[in-house]
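User: Teach me something about this protein's shape.
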Amino acid sequence: MQLTEDVAQRVTEAISRPSWKSADPTLFAMLLQKNADQNRKVVRWGIAAAVLSYICYGAFDWFLFPDLADRLILTRLTLGLTFLVLVELVARRGFAVTTLHYVAALAIVAGAIGWLLSALGTTHQEALSHFIIFGTVFILGANLFFNFRLWLSALSSATVTVAFASATLFVLQADFATRLVLATYFANCLVLSLYLSWRLSMERYHTFLHALQAQIQEQVAIENGQKLIEIADTDPLTGLKNRRAITREFAELCKEWAKDNDEIGVILMDVDYFKRFNDRLGHQAGDDCLIELARAFDETAASNHAIAGRYGGEEFVVLCKVAGHDHLREVTHQFCRAVEDLKISHPDRDDKLDIVTISAGASLTRAEQSIELRILLQEADRALYASKFSGRATFTIYDAQAIDQKRASQNLSELLKHAVSEGLVSVVYQPICDATSGQVLGHESLMRLRDFDGSVISPSVFIPVAEQTGGIEELGLWLIDRACGDMVEHGLGAVVSANVSVVQLKAPNFPLHIAEILGRHGMAPHKLALEVTEGSDISLEAQAARSIEQLRALGVQIWLDDFGTGFAGLAWLRRFKFDVVKIDRSFLHDCQTVRGLSLLQDMVRLLRNLGHTVLVEGVETKEQQNLLQHMGIQSIQGFLTGRPVPIEEIKQARRELVA
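Assistant: First, the predicted structure itself:
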């Protein structure tokens, strides 16, 4: 049933309308249509039962009117069977319920008057004066049994009433008092049964209205829910799927991946020299450019049965099912070519091209690795950066042994050497909040890096290179120094945290450097937390383990980051006492399944039993926050409570709050 806005408005008006006013014809027609099958059955079985009863009443004719018994019984048989066949014929031919009602009403009237006309000639008038009340059966049947429209009930029952009342008053041979009482009785039966018929009809109508209203409200709720889901899963500028939706789509692809031979490809695309495009032409032109690119990506994705989304800024991501590396290469090439075919003018490039292009990196699931979007994106990100160092406007398929990626790493290591002195590295802060009150408890400091042309380099790309080349030592100390300085000057809550790697912990005198930074800024050690990522077994690294113990002795908090994603988590929990254990975001996002929810609950229970404070990352929705509150989680972190922002934005937000 199509519930349009017009129907919804009609329902609202009909419910508030006084009961004595006529029903809305459109809604009443919908009621008849809704109950058409049921009414069809009522008429067919009702007529069958009525005919059987009508014929059986012939036994009374045999005893009461022996002089006309043959004629009366023949009348009953003829009329009863004729209309029974006629009703069945109309029903089986698929005529409208209204037509079936007409035939049934005619059967009632014909059966009543046919018997009456035959019975009036009997010589047993006294017996007839008693048995003539048999006519009320037809009146009640017309009004109460078949769910006729009120006017049809009234017409058929009134016809029967007039016939029996007239026969009683003017033909029946009985005293006047008897005839008057019988005629009055027929009239009373008519009025009472018509009233009951009207009441039942109104009850059915209003019940239908309220059911319709409930259905409309449910439909509106479902549509609103779908709109909210669509809004939550859609990038507002381009209309493509956002990061949240891409994560869910990847999970669906993984389910299919187990059933077929195709692999899952992840393509990461970045607009070349987009910052220069924005600076030269303005942000509106930049938005228009992204919208055009999104349309091209969406069309290309549709032709390849792929899924395109905006991953953030000028970065786009594609999920696709491919037969292998060659297929992934062809699909990636199509996306690059689709952008070039748009021929969007770019007025400020270092190369000879004068149009907008993209650099792309792609990665493919492999049998020897786990199927995680995070890992595939990191690989695609590294391949993307290799494309940039190869001159842009090209694409690279991830290969750990590829020469171009080695060259990219070499170029990046050179960039990292000058990152601090050239001002290419910066820090942003993401709030850590109380799960119940939402109060900001502290902030996590995160490093950001830009290329010489202003384009952003993902941490998943430059951090591994910095660790391999040793550049992470200088960058890491710079980050901690900035975080402590901002903490003292601007106040970032009870604690500010910074990520440290095993490479940093193994560096000579790392705890002494931390002590020097804290002393120089005059900051209490317990206000600094160092987050160790569960990536390798530091318990096997003597110097790293010694550094952790020395930092704890200094008073610095030691946190375990991304718990559950590495292989050494339980060993670490036995070896070290962490002030906070951060559960990786993937476990929260898997809570949509019963198994995922059970796993998260078990992890929280384990950590509590070991005496650790639990922080859950990746909180993006109010539903996730409510779930964690119900589980008794102390603190949370994620886009719901705040995105990573520079210290200037935190200061501005505070000024606006005070104002």
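Now, about its shape. Residues 168 and 179 are 6 Å apart (CA to CA). The mean pLDDT is 85. If you'd like, I can walk through any region in more detail.
User: That's plenty for now, thanks!
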